[in-house]
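Side project, low priority. Logging it here so it doesn't get lost.
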Amino acid sequence: MRIGNLRNYITIQTPTETTDANLEIILTWATFANVWAEITPLVGREYYASKTVNAEISGKVRIRYLAGVTSEMRIIDGTKTYQIEAVINIDNRNEELVLLVKEVV
């Protein structure tokens, strides 16, 4: 992993459930970690290949290995929000993660 490519400072958030005064469950987001990342939109062949697996994948995010990241989490990058669809531990070496994401509108 080339460290110079990690240009985006992102926030990884995890869902949490809280209850309000009426005892209704409310979904909120808590910060899991702030990390440097490389965000790359899928283009060309990668985009078409991803459509066969999951039509929603729009990009990939590379970060240093971080234990506990799951597909239930989301990523905040400035004004953009991405839902994590898949977490890939490259070669199972615990050095870097590739997160396949879709942008939430």
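Brief comment: The chain has a mean pLDDT of 88.
Revisit when time allows.
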